[in-house]
Sequence to fold (484 residues):
Amino acid sequence: MGKETQNMWSYAPALEGTGHLTIQKKYGLFINGEFVKPNSGKYFKSINPANEELIAEFAEANEKDVDLAVKAARTAYDKTWSKMPAKERGKYIYRIARMMQERARELAVAECLDAGKTIREARDIDVPLACNHFFYYAGWADKLNEAFPGKKPKSLGVAGQIIPWNFPILMAAWKIAPALATGNTVVLKAAETTPLTAMILAEIIQESGLPNGVVNIITGAGKTGAALVKHPDVNKIAFTGSTEVGKLIQKSIAGSGKKLTLELGGKSANIIFEDAPLDQAVEGIVNGIFFNQGHVCCAGSRLFVQESVAQKVIEKLKFRLESLIVGNPLDKNTDIGAINSKAQLETIEKYLKIGKEEGAEMFQPKCDLPKKGYYCPPTLFLDVAQSNRISQEEIFGPVLAIQTFRSIDEVIQKANNSPYGLAAGVWTDKGSRIFNLTTQLRAGVVWANTYNKFDPSSPFGGYKESGFGREGGLHGLTAYLKFD
Ligand code: NAP
Ligand code: MG
Fold:
């Protein structure tokens, strides 16, 4: 970065305080309403990826622990939750939502520390959206017959839920809220690198007086997740994570009768037409791929710009990248926080190397990265070919592969040329063009003149290798119900 630019964009630090957050040294498993020691006797560490400091130790659940959690969920289902009038169930869900709001600052800071995401996003997006999911589904709890008239919706039983590390508290809310509203009980496994907010949620749930065993939250590694998937007394598996693990899960439960939803990876296309408001589109591109360090399943990681405006858009984009602040996630000025783990940073760096080897031109703004912690500057790859690995494979980091196009047919064909089909963005002044594209793009969500916008009432999910089933909205209820 030139001196001039650096001065233009430097701000005094504005660190969010952490004094209001009490983190325990060691967390047990939340089973049957209590925090218990794991049968395994083992604990693992979660660190802050922004400075590599220890956050806390978390229990590693083994098969026996998973079994105890599932038994607690089964007993709670049979004896309490399935018998409770729906409107009473709804009251508990509202209470959890309100209590999360009361502890919103704690949750936001905890998420920032454990996951490396910026405080701005944790505070303004993750936590409010997580609360809103509980509020939204609380409202449906006693209206299921109205939601599905004449279809006699019934709960499934025990839901086993497995979540990734990119939106820890939000994913927990996406999973737990609809399961409870539809009368199911839950065993949720948090991701290994981000268990902290799940355990704070467990404290909230305990304090809310929700009957014991209705929600059980366990921590551990992939093996813990696999034990939950295989448990014979689980009726439904809801998984969000990589396509690779999703395929393993699908194989492992084939023929078991367990209901399954899979929310998997993506390589989503963000498409800019020449008549688009270009400055807004540039902000949309930045938000689409650099938001949450690119740790977003629906990140707009493939950019398609119409040839006539390509040079202009790329110039604007490069200029904008110079102003992005990469650094301490707790600083309110930070735009791009820490990469979630060392392993994920290594994956991203592997792809940077692949991109260069494939002959694409790499652009990174000059920025000083903190000495400790895991960081990656925002990165553009220009002159990318359709067949390049950087335009086909999910990188899950702040890396954008850029291509150009001339006609609508060409861009539709290019955008759909992907094993994934999670999301897409279309930027144009022309409404009819938006509708033309939304019907032809094979993507679960298509944003028009915006990107990465979420709402509890709107269903989310993928095509092809991005998975099946929908979360959010009425569709999200269906995933936890059976019908006569
Ligand atoms: P991952 O490795 O698939 O892990 C996801 C979860 O599954 C974690 O809790 C993980 O535990 C657990 N797990 C690992 N192996 C397992 C197994 N054999 N059986 C059962 N559970 C197992 O994915 P990730 O790398 O953490 O997350 C990133 C991926 O998630 C990306 O591909 C991204 O696109 C996808 N994602 C999709 C959505 C969506 O809605 N479509 C949303 C967010 C993320 P550990 O943490 O202990 O490994
Ligand atoms: Mg961590």
Observations:
- The mean pLDDT is 96.
- The pocket of magnesium ion (ligand 2) is lined by residues 46-47, 55, 114, 193-194 (CB under 6 Å).
- The first helix runs from residue 3 to 8.
